[in-house]
Amino acid sequence: MGVDSRIGSNLSDELDDNAIISVDCGTNTSWAARFIDIRKGMKFSVSGTLSSMANGLPYAIAAQIAFPERQSVAFVGDGGLTMLMGEFATAVQYSLPIKVIVIKNNTLGLIRWEQMGFLGNPEYGVEFSPIDYVKFAEACGGKGYAISEPSEVKSTMHQAMKERKPTIVEAYVDPFEPPMPPKVEMGFVRNLAESFAKGQPYVGRIGLTLFRDQVHSILKNLHSHS
What we know:
By secondary structure, the protein is an alpha/beta fold. It contains ten helices and six strands, in the order αβαβαβααβααβαβαα. Helix 8 links the parallel strand 5 and strand 6. Helix 1 packs across helix 2 (27-35) and helix 1 (3-14) runs parallel beside helix 8. It is globular, with a radius of gyration of 18 Å.
């Protein structure tokens, strides 16, 4: 189990029964839907109609203002956060103790997989320069934490969620981890192969990630039946 799956499940352990979770659009939406346990009494918001990016942080700020006694958590990707990250300073200015969980892969991950899996084209223009969100949070007057290994997730998440200041948790994940649907259609596989044939970079990395995921899935099924 990688950071991307553990971050959602361990966040669930730290959420109050009336927590408000605001999810941005991107591969992080898949991780949130799969691994965050939404319980009765919680609120879960996502920009699902237009799928506009950058909604997670302002949603969380608005929720914290409207419900100051409740946990307000933004679960976002680095692509969406960078579009509106200056508003974290607003949260600091008004002492809003929001928690921002950033799935960091320095990539517009969902766009990468749409280009390959939906269009059959090699990726184009999806990578961007990395940002140190820990330093950014501290520069704004908030708190920042970083996670780069699965073993760090539980303790770091527990500590970050107890902070009284606005806090960013930067969780670095595999940039080639696919947001796979529940059922893989042959069209997706065909388009993926076509993108490889057209010169998709990082074919080895992508293939290794897909193979690793299949092995993890097989082992998980074996353990569940043992």
